[in-house]
Structures are given as C-alpha cells and as structure tokens.
Amino acid sequence: MMRQIMRQFFTFVFVLLNGxxxxxxxxxxxxxxxxxxxxxxxxxxxxxxxxxxxxxxxxDPAWLDDPxxxxxxxxxxxxxxxxxxxxxxxxxFFVVKDVMLNAFALPGGYIGVHTGLILAAQSESELAGVLAxxxxxxxxxxxxxxxxxxxxxxxxxxxxxxxxxxxxxxRVSEAALSAGVAGxxxxxxxxxxxxxxxxxxxxxxxxxxAGLDVxxxxxxxxxxxxATRLYENNAPVYLRTHPxxxxxxxxxxxxxxxxxxxxxxxxxxxxxxxxRLRVQSLPAAEALRTFAGLVEASPxxxxxxxxxxxxxxxxxxxxxxxxxxxxLRRRAKxxxxxxxxxGDVSMARRDTNGAINMLAAACKxxxxxxxxxxxxxxAQIAGGHAQDAERGMRRALTGRSSDTxxxxxxxxxxxxxxxxxxxxxxxxxxHFLQGGYRAAVEQLELAHRAGDGDFYELxxxxxxxxxxxxxxxxxxxxxxxxxxxx
Length: 486
Known about the structure:
Layout: H1 2-18, H2 43-59, H3 67-82, E1 92-96, E2 103-106, E3 110-114, H4 115-120, H5 124-139, H6 142-149, H7 151-166, H8 170-188, H9 192-209, H10 215-231, H11 237-241, H12 246-257, H13 268-281, H14 284-297, H15 302-315, H16 318-331, H17 336-348, H18 352-365, H19 370-382, H20 386-397, H21 404-416, H22 420-433, H23 437-449, H24 455-485
Parallel strand pairs: 1-3
Antiparallel strand pairs: 2-3
C-alpha cells in the first residue's frame, strides 16, 4: 500500500510542477530573473521541505537501494546540473523501482526517475534530456512560485500529502491524497503548457552546454507522444503529468534546428545500468534465458555479457559466472561495474580475499567510484578485516559526512571490532540522516552507556546528543506551526 501512496504522492508533486501559475507575456518565456511571488518561501525552506519528503521516499520499498545505479544517475544528473542556468544549486538524484515511465522533481533539488523510464530511453542523451527538463523545473523554482503566490492553498495540499504518506490507515491516506490532488488538478492544470515549454527550453540549453545530443530530448518526447494512442485512458504517468502536444514537440524541434549538431555515443555505464535494471526486473531463470540468447546474438556487446554474468550469479551458477566474467574482462574495458560484479562473484564463492584484492585495485583505478568503496568495505567486514574497513570509512567520511551508507558501514565495522561506543555513534548518524531523530538519540544514549569509550568519544557523543535533541525540537515546532496554518 505504501508504494501506491507514494505513486499518488509523486503524481501530486508533478501536478504542482506542471500546474504552476504565472503570467507569460506575449514576448515569450520569462528569464530566470523574472521569477515573482516567492519571497515567502526561501531556498532554505524549500530544501527543508524536500528533505522532509525524501525521508518518506527513502523508507518506501519502491526506493531503489542500488549504489551502482544511484552513482550513475547522480553522475549524469550532476553533469547536467553543472551546465544548467543555476550551476551552484545542490541536486540529488534517485531511482524508484517502477515500470511506469516517469520522472519528477521535488522541492529543494531532489529529482527522481523511475526504472521504467531508464529502460525506455534508447540513448544516454534521451535519458539526459528528461533529467535536464526536470532540472529546468527546479532552477526556475516552480514549486516555490506556486507556494509564494497561493501559499495558503498550497500548504494545505502539501500538508495533506505529507499526512497521507505518514498515515498507517490506508483509507485515511487515500482520502487525504484525493482531496489534495483534486484541488491541485482543478486549480492549476490550465497553466501546465507554459511551464513545460519553459522547462523544455532550459533543458535543451543544459543538454547543449553539457556536451550531449540535444536531439535526444526532442526524440524521446516525440516517441512518447506517438505511443499515447496505444495507452488510451491509461497513459504513462509522465504523459499525464507532462502534457505533450504537437505544438510543444514542434517548438523543441525548431530549437534543436538552430543548435549545433553533435553525435554523442553512449557511455558504457549507461548500457551497464540499463542491463542491470533489466536483469533485476525479470525472474532469475527468465533473465538467464534472455541474456544467454542476447549474448549469442551479439557476442561483442559487453553490457549483455555483464547481464548474463549477473543473471548466472543470481541463480547461483557460479562456475558459469566465472567463465562468462573472464570472457567479459577479456573483451571489455575496465569498469567499476565489472570490478564490483567480479567482487560479488568471488564473495559468492567464499573467496573473500580474492574479492578484497579485486575491489581494492578497483578503488585505486576508479577513485571517484563510491560504489566500489562500499563494496570493498562490505568484503573487508565479511572477510574479518573490519579494522581496514573502519579506517577506509573514516577516510571517506572526511569529505562525505552526509553519506548514510558510509556511516552504516562504519557502524558495522565497529560492531565487528567490539567497539560499542563507536558503533552506536555511527548508527546514530544513520538515523539522523534518515530523519529518525528519536532513534538517533537512543543510539547516542547507548553509546554513553556502552562503557568502552574514552573521554574524547564520550564528550563528542554528548555534544552530538545535544545537537540532535535541539534539531528534533526545532522540527517539532515547525510541524506544529504547519499544523496551525492549516
């Protein structure tokens, strides 16, 4: 039921993004400096609202907890964000396990994309075009404009959605959602065309500045438009929330004609990600049959051989996986995807030392790959080298203190070493970053009582305990204020 609630919630957010009211002059679309009516909703408040929503998203089973896929989508998204009209804004990209074609922007620079849309994209530039379009919604602060101009109604609708997400009774959730969505739909949908055109314009500029093929955006949207007749009244969410029409497609194509032609090959990682998602989406036996046939038909395609190895691993056909993997490494260029899969195969064969050696080498060859860092730490903990994992996590956290996975791995490493104070302190950070302030407080209290911490550790735990209690009190006051405003 939570997945259904989150889908409805995402639909509501799309309605906000695409149904926001402002006047477009006859001279054309507004520039970034023309944003009006958002004085009462600051970027800080927008980010705080986005963080609150994301806490619920991360708790839902539909959120894809796959470091390799997440790392890829963030690398592509941040490349686009750096080339956007607001390159200094912080963005976070994430993936939702859902076959429906959809992508969406939340307040504060959070952008999600469904696995179904990634699989439907026929090129990396097509996927980048959708992300660039959503980035355009964020840089123009469309949600902030709605809340700034129609604050009372917007806050009521946002409150109803947040209440619905948190409600345990599905009937209460659905009632709250239907009320909020109905109000947004009736009041705002008539403005969606102008905002979509604006996001299209900015998205194309971002694609070009990022060195990607601008035709990918127009081509993907045109293909979606042609597909609408197959869906009748059950069109994909992206088509319902991002209305397409002939005029909008023609406008994109006209803009593309004036831009420099650039043929951009897909990165190997784009193909590895799509293959990984496809294997995960199929029953294990079906995935094995499918990719065995695909490799036979296209033996030089490294991503297909990667998919076959992954499918063999899922079924426990480890000898076959080793043979396929050896052939993959012989034919393909080195990649974090291949290195991590090699580590997974070695771990499945109980060769933890082999996995550690491979993953340690991968971390040196690909120092920017956090998914390789996570995989190495997991192998070290499983292989009895928790001290190495602890040192590695502390080094990594120096520049990534908000990385929940690193804190979780640090907690596991300290647990394996019997360092209870350090374990509970790290676990407290996991809960804090996920919005679980009460659980974070409990972990810090356990850290204080563990009895194996030195003066420095206990002092740091006490100081952090005071900080988190203050943050929890602040959140409670803000929640009460929102409740009063209803």
